[in-house]
Amino acid sequence: MKLFKKILIANRGEIALRIIRACKELGIRTVAVFSEADRESLHVKLADEAICIGPANPQQSYLNIPAILSAAEITDAEAIHPGYGFLSENPHFAEACITSGITFIGPTPDNIRIGGDKAKARSILKRKGIPVVPGSDGPINSEEIADKVVKRIGFPVIIKASAGGGGKGMRIVREESEFEQAFHMAQREAFAAFGNGELYIEKYISSIRHIEVQILADSKGNVIHLGERECSIQRRHQKLLEEAPSPALTEKQRKKIGEFAVRAARAIKYRNAGTFEFIVDGEGNIYFIEINTRIQVEHPVTELITGIDIVKEQIKIAAGYELGLKQSDVKINGWAIECRINAEDPERFIPSPGKITFLALPGGPGVRVDTAIYPGYTVPPYYDSMIAKLIVYGKNRQEAIRRMARAIDEFMIDGVKTTIPFHKKLLNNPQFIEGNYNTSFVEEMNSSNLPKEVLQSV
């Protein structure tokens, strides 16, 4: 069995560069695709070949399936890696690749469909004995059905889009008088974002930790997990910082949540890399919430504590290789933290595109920077505002926090505003240092640790 000779990367920015690096180390040639706005991007410069697939608008470029498949055909690419975002969780794209005789480096179309239908995923895993938050048993498309659910489970509830994520179509409703308006707003937002207005409803549990488990699964039925990641530092359901392992879990909980993820992956016959997301309440109860059928933005923290290159594993699994690891081979060593550096106003969290006039990246022991920016690069306004990921490793959490604080001080960017000032404040917050936080932490940070403007805009 051989690996691919050439892989097309259907993405941009740091994740495209991350995949190029993995391919080079495996001896695989790469093809970059780019929009007209990304002509000077680093992934274009470092790939073996590059093809423009359309204008800046992502609908006409990075979401343009015919253009991407044509680029693969023209360059004789044998496989396509979608990265994260864009077409990575589009089952039609995965099917189109297969139909075209191109390997899709990711899960099966059926896996993606189940992951994209949160209500269905909940239902399947509930039947398999995986605990889920009390709520609707399937997708809801009418207020009448929604009313029956909330009468059964009681307020407060959280409304979520069945077909998507990232906080779109999500509303927390604490009282019955607020429900009708929140339901219709969530439905409209879900339809606008995902073309599907179906929702599902869960009991809202406050003071939760958001914890996810990385899994790898091959086509032979072998499934392993690579430990958990703590993702509770969020603003409007968007992650700002992740760490691994979680400071909240006991060893008993850690073992249980890993076993839940593996059982869940087996239940849907999952293949390739994926993430199973859970919440943990104040009493330590673990509940499944959703599946991410792609490589995650925060995968580097898992790589640093396990020594396993997840992107390389994705490629090998897609090529038909059996996992070379058993669960007993996976050892968790040390601690890793990732800060997402966004080109955003740190006080209002609104995008700040523009030309980078000065850039100094941090370095030193245990520091990794995943980025595609460089001095003179212009951050375009058309795409996600994340421009870099700063990841550090330490022998324990205390060392990792101190190393991150040191590294973030070394990270200097001029020309665009970034979220670096927010991260500096966070890393000096006593509660964060103690590991005493939950998904409401950013909203609850006091004014001495976060500007008033941020609190007002949360």
Give structural notes.
This protein is of the alpha+beta class and 458 residues long. The protein has three domains: 6-105, 3-Layer(aba) Sandwich (Rossmann fold); 134-203, Dna Ligase, domain 1 (2-Layer Sandwich), CATH 3.30.1490; 209-457, D-amino Acid Aminotransferase, Chain A, domain 1 (2-Layer Sandwich). Helix content is 34%, strand content 24%. The protein has 16 helices and 20 strands. It has helices spanning 13-26, 42-46, 65-75, 91-99, 109-116, 118-127, 143-153, 176-194, 251-267, 299-306, 310-318, 397-410, 420-427, 430-434, 441-444, 452-457; strands at 6-9, 29-35, 49-54, 79-81, 103-104, 157-161, 171-173, 199-203, 209-217, 223-235, 238-244, 272-280, 286-292, 335-342, 354-355, 358-360, 367-371, 378-379, 386-394, 412-414. The chain has an eight-stranded antiparallel β-sheet with strand order 13-12-9-10-11-14-19-17, with helices on both faces. Strands 3-2-1-4-5 form a five-stranded parallel β-sheet. Strands 7-6-8 form a three-stranded antiparallel β-sheet, with helices on one face. Helix 4 (91-99) runs antiparallel to helix 5 and helix 12 runs antiparallel to helix 13. The longest helix is centred in the middle third of the chain and has 19 residues, at 176-194. It is globular.
User: Could you tell me the number of beta strands?
Assistant: 20
**CATH class (first level) name of the largest domain:** Alpha Beta
Distance from N terminus to C terminus (CA atoms, Å) equals 52 Å
Report the CATH architecture of the largest domain: 2-Layer Sandwich
Structural class assignment = alpha+beta
Choose one word for the global shape.
Answer: globular
State the low-pLDDT regions, or none: 446-458
CATH superfamily of the largest domain, by name, is ATP-grasp fold, B domain
Helix content: 25-40%
Number of helices: 16
What is the total domain count?
A: 3
Biggest sheet layout: 8 strands, antiparallel
How are the strands ordered across the major sheet? 13-12-9-10-11-14-19-17
User: What is the fold named in CATH at topology level of the largest domain?
Assistant: D-amino Acid Aminotransferase, Chain A, domain 1
As a percent range, the share of strand residues is 15-25%
Mean pLDDT: 94
- What is the C-alpha radius of gyration, as a whole number of Å? 21 Å
